[in-house]
Amino acid sequence: MTRAAIRIALSAAVALLAVAGSATYSAVSAEDADRTVETDLWAEGLPAELTDDPAGDLDRGRTDTPLRRMLLPVPETHRLGPEPVPFDDNDGELDARGTVRLMKQQQQGLTVTGRRQFETAVDRMGLQGMVWRTYVRREVGQDVAKVQIVRLKDGKGARTLYALQTGLLKIVELEKGPVVEGHRNASCFKGAPGGPQEGSDLTVFVCHAYRADTVVSVEFSGHWTLYPSVVAEFVKKQLDHIASPGEYV
User: Alpha-carbon distance 85 to 87, whole Å?
Assistant: First the structure.
């Protein structure tokens, strides 16, 4: 891989981390914040107009597109969670154009030249679309999980993005999180850039994985007593579900 290609992929990985990283933590900590400021994220690049889901049980999550069916159905122990920042939906999808547009908005503080380079990097990543869903445990309302699945044009792009995402988290020296049994292409970390500060009652776990042409990001925000085994089991169920998305159980 050339240095130029590495710079391109790294820029796009930073953009994806800006969207995925600390999103659930932000949603929980800003739950009572002013939500009157409108966002234009949904102005274009959305999938077709939402219709009734043929699966019928929207409490378990929508299943009306192939990418949505990769998301873990909401378990009996959970319900759909809060709307994660910067999205305004707790069970949403963007097509390729919308995903690229969202990534390009993550360029605060860049010069004009830097913005052009950044946008070129995002264009070259081969983003095909993304879905996300948030979950909250019924008995522990403070424990929130957000799953985000990004589809790329091929498996090589997915592997590269996964390596860069996990590499960036290693650079900021986050503590290693739990091991996800049966999934060697998955890495978890305790903490997240911009997450709860030391002494907070909240803790965050971030996990990234790839399978075929998709990259999966799972972030947990919960009470400091949140067990790593709970995190690992949830991630395992999500990754197992991707292997058999038609088994909506």
Answer: 5
- Residue 34 Cα to chain centre, angstroms: 23
Angstrom CA distances, 148 to 34, 38, 44, 132, stand at 25, 22, 20, 4
Kindly state the tokens that stand for 22: 């600390």
What's the count of helices (H) and strands (E) in the chain, helices before strands?
A: 6, 8
- Higher-confidence position of 94 and 106: 94
86 upstream amide cis, omega within 30 of 0 = yes
Question: Tokens 């058999």 label which residue?
Answer: 244
Q: How many other CB atoms are there within 10 angstroms of residue 150's CB atom?
A: 28
The CA distances from residue 19 to 52, 174, 178, in Å, are 28, 18, 23
Between 73 and 5, the higher pLDDT residue: 73
